Amino acid sequence: MRASDRVSGPPVDGAAAGAPVTDSTAETQLDPRSGGPATPGLPEGSPGAPLPAAYPVAARRRASRSLWQACETLISASADPRALGRALEAMRHAFDCDGVALHVLGPSGQIEPWCARGRWHVPAGDLRDCMSMPLLHGRQRLGSLDLMARPGQHWQPAQLGLIRTASGALGAALGARLELERLRNQPGRDPVTGLPDEHAFRARMLEELERARRHGPPLALTLIELDHFDALHQRYGREVAAGVLSEATVVLKLALRESDVLAHPDPAPASRHGRFVVLLPETQAVAAVRCADRLKRVLEEHRFAHVGRVSATAGVAASPRDGLEAVELIEAARQALALAHKSGRRHVGAPVRPSVQ
User: Fold this and answer.
1) How is the chain split into domains, by residue range?
2) Model pTM?
3) Which contacts (CB < 8 Å, 24+ apart) does range 202-207 have?
4) What is the phi/psi pair of residue 164, to 5°?
5) Nearest in space to 251 (alpha carbons), one of 228, 233, 274
6) Domain 3-183: CATH architecture, name and number where available
7) What is the pLDDT of residues 311-324, one digit of tens each?
8) Which candidate among 47, 66, 342, 344 keeps its CA 20 to 30 Å from the CA of 19?
9) What is the pLDDT of residue 176?
C-alpha cells in the first residue's frame, strides 16, 4: 500500500485547531475457533467480533456494513482508492460525524494522509470534538483512523466502542497485508502470497510432529481450496487470479491464531491453483473441523475484487489419529478434501475411519 494511492480530498491533520484529541487502542481479542475472547492475535473488530451492544441496532448495522466494506478494500490487492472513499463515506454516516480520514505508513516511513471524506476545513473558532485512533499491528503503528464530530456533538461511550472496533479491524487488515507484501521476496516464501512455500512448510511440519511425539499435544492439518480456481484463472487472467490469492491469504491470516501456520504450497504454478494448507498445533480433530468450517465461511463471505464471491472446500486430518508421519497426515488430508469434492464441494471433509466389528 502506498500513500500516493490516496483519494484526492482536503488535507487532514486529525483535529481542528484547539479541539481535544483522544488516542486509544483496541485490547479485546477473540478466539478464532469460537469467536469468543481470549486468543491472542485477533483484535476487536476482526471477523467474529461483536459490536458494542449499547448502540442502537440500526446504527450498529450501518457501522458493521461500512466497517466490512472498508476492511475488504484494505484487504484487496488493488486497494481501489475510490472504493475506500465510498467505505469511509459510509462510515461517516454510520458514526454520525462530519469527517472521517485514514492516515497510513508511507514510503518515507512517516504516517501520511491517504483518504479523507467529509468537511475537514472549518471556520476559525469552530471548535469540535475530534478523535484519532491508532491502527496497530502488534506493537507497530501503521496509521490512524481520524474522526471529527458535528458542531455541538460529543462522543458517547457507545460510539467510542464502535470506533475502537473499527480501528482494531482496520489495523489488523492493513497489518496483515503489509506484512505479507514484505515477505514475498524473501527466501522460502511464495512470491504471490508471501506465505511459506512447500519446502519451508514441510520443515515446520516436521518440527511440530516431533514436538507432538515428544510431548503429546495433538496436531491437525487442514487443506482448504478455492473452488474452480483454474476456471477463474482462465476467465480473468493471471493478475486477477494472483490478486484473489493475495486477498484470500489476508482473510485466512485474520481468522487464525498466531501459532497456526498458513502456507501456499506450489505443486502447480503459483497463480494456477487455489489451495492453502494450515497446520494447527495443539488442536484435536473435532476442533480442527470447526476451524476449517470457519475458514471456509470467512472466505465465502468475503467479496473479492473483480470476481465477487468465491466458494471453498476443505479437508481435515489429525495426528495421531490419521498418522504419525508427515506423508501420512498430508495424504489423509488430501483424501478428506477429495471426499468433500465428491460431496458437492463447499463442505469440510474428514478421513473415514473403518468401523471396528
Assistant:
1) 3-183, 198-349
2) 0.70
3) 202/326, 204/261, 204/279, 205/261, 205/279, 205/326, 205/329, 206/326
4) -60, -40
5) 274
6) 2-Layer Sandwich (3.30)
7) 999 999 998 888 88
8) 66
9) 82
